[in-house]
Amino acid sequence: MLALHSEAPDVLLTGITMNSRDVEPGDLYLGLPGARFHGATFAKDAVARGAVAILTDASGAVEATAAGVPVLLVTESPRDIAGDLAAWLYGTSTDRPLTLGVTGTNGKTSTVHFLDALLTQLGRKTGLSSTAERRIGDEVVVSSLTTPEAPELHALLARMHEVDVDAAVLEVSAHALTRHRVDGVVFDVSAFTNLSHDHLDDYADMDEYFEAKLALFTPERSRKAVVSLDTPAGFAVAERAGVDVVTISSTPGVASDWTVTIDDEKPDSTAFTVHSERAGSFSTRVPVIGRHMAANGGLAIAMLVEAGISPNEIRSVLDRDGGILATLPGRSVLVPVVDGPAVYVDAGHSPDAFAKTLESVRSLTRGRVIMVAGANGDRDALKRPEMGREAALGSDVLIITDHQPRSEDPAEIRSAVLAGAREAKPDGDIREIAAPELAIRAAVAEATAEDTILWAGLPEKEYREVAGVKIPFSVLDETRAALTEAGWVTP
Ligand SMILES: CC(=O)N[C@H]1[C@@H](OP(=O)(O)OP(=O)(O)OC[C@H]2O[C@@H](n3ccc(=O)[nH]c3=O)[C@H](O)[C@@H]2O)O[C@H](CO)[C@@H](O)[C@@H]1O[C@H](C)C(=O)N[C@@H](C)C(=O)N[C@H](CCC(=O)O)C(=O)O
Ligand SMILES: Nc1ncnc2c1ncn2[C@@H]1O[C@H](COP(=O)(O)OP(=O)(O)OP(=O)(O)O)[C@@H](O)[C@H]1O
Q1: 470 annotated as belonging to a binding site for a ligand
Q2: Which of 4, 134, 172, 186 is the most buried (most CB within 10 A)?
Q3: How far is the CA of 59 from the centre of ligand 2 (A)?
Q4: What does the domain layout of the chain look like in residue ranges?
């Protein structure tokens, strides 16, 4: 499959990358075909930055050869070997920290942040890769994709090993599995959270999306798996996984190795007990609302026990600290208001995420639930009416607004969400306010101290992408400003 394309002198490779902009001197540059470009187009740039060899396919051969360094030709799909090549070059098959991975439609980011917090509480040095953040110990690494491309991922693990990171916690997206980004990584423990409607722009149907996730649970990718039975897909993963599986459930009445039961729900935390026959009970809390978040916290604890960390050590740290001390970026963030409405912002952008967060908000609200919601452009359009439906069914007042239209017409996105909402609740109080800064102000104007406002669907970023342009915008700052202008005190 591999062929040397030029009269190649010996070269010493010290790194590997598939992005010309990230090339370091001594790197092997992978010039791979993509949706927009062929990576070989950037071969000369890569060499100018210090690439000492190029790997490409037949269609990239001419441009790669013109760059003047040895070229390796891969006749079939070169992406398929990138992970193994990177693992070999960086030695990450053996020299890497304890590696934990989480996949599923929702709860990946939350679970890896719970894992990271708990490991830190246990005195372990951690590395983390999530949608929200990428970090090696205290060193922050810039991230764009949820799961980095294989060469970047292996470099990350190698660097973690170099600086004595004890455990790496990684979010594994379906795209990462489909696109070979985690190839060459064998997770010590991997986990499955749930499966619900999302990403049907990238996958033909839910079956294909499920198969993408299932690929994590093979001996090439995982040693052991903790699988949540909270959605029907969990049962199918447990049945079809090619590795040892232990199951966990937060659904009453479902038999599983680990169970999560809710003990208490507060506006700023959820107390729960996670139990297994072998490890006993852990009664603790997560600093965020929702039974689903307790399920994620229980999953994190179960993963650490299954990874071999002593249950008693975990129990004593949880008791000492009063729970898992995580800060979840943008996930059900409580905006403090003195004697006012409870206000949350949540990054959830799928029908099930809306439903779960609304359910927990409802159980904590004496008055009305006022929701500000929107959907993003250039992503699965089929889920928009379903998001509208869940939003309408779970709230008393629903304000549909613009989030990140990206290249799409925002009015069309709103109208799809509105259609689902109005169909589900024809007599509901459902409004359309395009500008998000006005939508949150309308929600605040409506709210009494007994009510809860939930603004869901926008990540905690410093911008919104509109017509391809990133406009400065902070969902948290905007919410605080709206509350202050309305006379509420926000400490
Ligand atoms: C569908 C998909 O995943 N596409 C990713 C993919 O694009 P591509 O292979 O089509 O690449 P391309 O842009 O045509 O470029 C071809 C090649 O030239 C290289 N290049 C390109 C330009 C340049 O100046 N130099 C250079 O070397 C690129 O690195 C690439 O290897 O490789 C690019 C480089 O790594 C990624 O930026 C791009 O992610 C796009 C932006 C994306 O939106 N991905 C989403 C769908 C995604 O992966 N999301 C999941 C999370 C989903 C979730 O759970 O919410 C994720 O893990 O992030
Ligand atoms: N276990 C769960 N079940 C259902 N919904 C959940 C669960 N955990 C979190 N959510 C909802 O999904 C939203 C996103 O959570 P999180 O960021 O942890 O998921 P994710 O899988 O990383 O998603 P993404 O990478 O697409 O942001 C949360 O803000 C919450 O609304």
Answers
A1: no
A2: 172
A3: 40
A4: 2-77, 91-321, 333-485
